[in-house]
Write a structure and sequence with these properties.
This protein folds into two domains: about 20-80, no CATH class; about 95-295, Orthogonal Bundle (MetI-like fold), CATH 1.10.3720.10. Helix content is about 75%, strand content about 0%. It is an all-alpha fold and about 325 residues long. The chain has helices spanning about 1-15, 15-30, 35-40, 50-60, 65-80, 90-125, 130-145, 145-160, 180-190, 190-230, 230-240, 245-280, 285-295, 300-325.
Length: about 325
């Protein structure tokens, strides 16, 4: 237990330089873009010179880059950083839009688990059979299918022809927030009507977002399990005459470490695909918010979104590391 605590402390200490590095690099990339963000924030080409100067003074755009970066980060952590487009605090915008993106990512992750893991097991068990070939073809299609193409095809099928989905807005959140995830909060409060509304709204975009990840996970589960089954210790157990159930239990435990890795990375990667999915399906999430911020050179919003995405990534990696340490105690050292 002491080794596990030290291991977690070391991992938590890496949060700070990771967050600083990600936000700093993002800011520098936006900073060197040859454009005039102050004029865009003040109203565009019709903005007066006085309005532009006021924006520059308010956001320290006349100061060196490190002063601007410090101002943005300090304002983000104190909740005083104002989005020049919405005139709301950036933290308010993030808390408003992030639950929709998180809900989309959770639905996508459920599809990854329901499709990727069982298909990977089937492919490993039925190696070199028709089923194995079918799963490998599915994985290849999943990896190579563009999100935007699949999204529009499924909209044409389920919205234009079958009329069983909607692609406008999102259902209202529950009155009481418990977990921050609207669909789960509705379920916990027993509001099954609202719960079903969220399921109907998010299942199709969740499938589109998770389709590629399901193919990746299916292929990874298959390869990891086959590699574990061909290990020397499995041959030794076979020689001892242990049951097939025992063989699979040992093989699965050793195959879990790389599987957990790819699942953690896939959850973080879902956020990178969320902007495309949110725009296609009209979901007001943080991905679409990020796209609009980039289009308008909105430094405050860009830093806020980057911080949020980085926090999700490092948190997912921390959970993966904890599972590592539980599955394989050698990782703690």
């Amino acid at each position: 237990m002491a080794e596990l605590k030290r291991f977690l402390v070391r991992r938590l200490l890496t949060f700070i330089p990771t967050i600083i590095g990600v936000t700093l690099i993002t800011f520098l990339i936006a900073y060197v873009v040859p454009a005039d963000p102050a004029r865009a924030w003040a109203g565009g080409e019709k903005a007066s010179t006085k309005a532009v100067e006021l924006v520059k003074e308010r956001y320290h755009l006349n100061d060196p880059w490190y002063v601007q970066y410090a101002f943005l980060v300090q304002g983000l952590f104190t909740g005083t950083l104002i989005n020049p487009q919405t005139q709301n605090p950036v933290t308010y915008d993030l808390m408003k839009y992030f639950p929709n993106t998180l809900e989309l990512a959770v639905f996508a992750f459920i599809f990854i688990l329901l499709l990727g893991i069982p298909l990977g097991f089937i492919s490993a068990i039925k190696k070199d059979t028709v089923l194995d070939m079918g799963v490998r073809v599915f994985a290849l299609i999943g990896v190579s299918t563009p999100i935007f193409w699949l999204g529009y095809i499924l909209i044409w099928v389920f919205f234009v022809n079958l009329r069983i989905i909607t692609i406008a807005g999102v259902p209202p959140p529950p009155e009481i927030t418990i977990t921050g995830l609207p669909v789960l909060d509705a379920l916990l409060q027993g509001d099954f009507t609202l719960f079903w509304q969220h399921v109907q709204r998010f299942w199709l975009p969740g499938f589109v977002l998770g389709f590629m990840g399901a193919g990746v996970v299916a292929r990874f589960v298959r390869n990891s399990l086959l590699e574990s089954l061909s290990s020397d210790y499995i041959e030794y157990l076979k020689a001892k005459g242990v049951s097939k159930l025992t063989l699979w239990r040992h093989a699965l435990k050793n195959a879990l470490v790389p599987i957990v890795t790819v699942l953690g990375l896939q959850f973080g990667a879902l956020l990178s695909g969320a902007p495309i999915t949110e725009i296609i399906f009209g979901i007001p999430g943080i991905g679409r918010y990020a796209v609009l911020a980039i289009q308008n050179l909105n430094f405050p919003a860009i830093i806020g979104v980057t911080f949020m995405f980085a926090m999700v990534y490092v948190t997912a990696n921390l959970i993966v590391d904890i599972l590592y340490a539980i599955i394989d105690p050698r990782v703690r050292y």
